[in-house]
């Protein structure tokens, strides 16, 4: 993503979207390990899940999406407890 400060191209494609659309499973895994957001959307509203080139990449993305959603819920629950919410 040369020339992009936030890792997103002008049409909204992220590095994980490009890797997924080209079927580069190991690159997708590396980007996810580094914190890539599976739910990020491009200008057409597509996510990496939408543009995945093959079933193995799709499986990696689906597993990461599930873990990312679980993590967001867990963090929210911790913040609620810390703030005294029930």
List keywords for this structure.
86 residues, mainly alpha, Serine Threonine Protein Phosphatase 5, Tetratricopeptide repeat, elongated, disordered N terminus, Ankyrin_rpt-contain_sf, repeat
List the topology elements:
Elements lengths: L14 H7 L3 H9 L14 H4 L3 H28 L4
Task: Explain this structure.
- The protein has 86 residues and is mainly α.
- It has a single domain, classed as Ankyrin repeat-containing domain (Serine Threonine Protein Phosphatase 5, Tetratricopeptide repeat).
- 56% of the residues lie in helices and 0% in strands.
- It is built from 4 helices and no strands.
- Helix 1 packs antiparallel against helix 2 and helix 2 (25-33) packs parallel to helix 4.
- The longest helix has 28 residues, at 55-82.
- Mean pLDDT is 81; it is low at 1-5.
Number of domains: 1
Total beta-strand segments: 0
The top-level CATH class is Mainly Alpha
Outline = elongated
Distance between the termini: 43 Å
**Stretches where pLDDT falls below 50 for ≥5 residues?**
1-5
- How helical, in percent, are the residues? 55-70%
């Amino acid at each position: 993503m040369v020339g992009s400060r936030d890792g997103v191209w002008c049409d909204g494609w992220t590095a994980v979207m490009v890797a997924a659309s080209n079927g580069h499973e190991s690159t997708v895994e590396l980007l996810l390990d580094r914190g890539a957001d599976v739910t990020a959307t491009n200008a057409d509203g597509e996510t990496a899940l939408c543009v995945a080139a093959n079933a193995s990449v799709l499986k990696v993305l689906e597993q990461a999406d599930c873990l990312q959603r679980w993590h967001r819920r867990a963090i929210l629950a911790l913040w609620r407890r810390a703030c005294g919410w029930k």
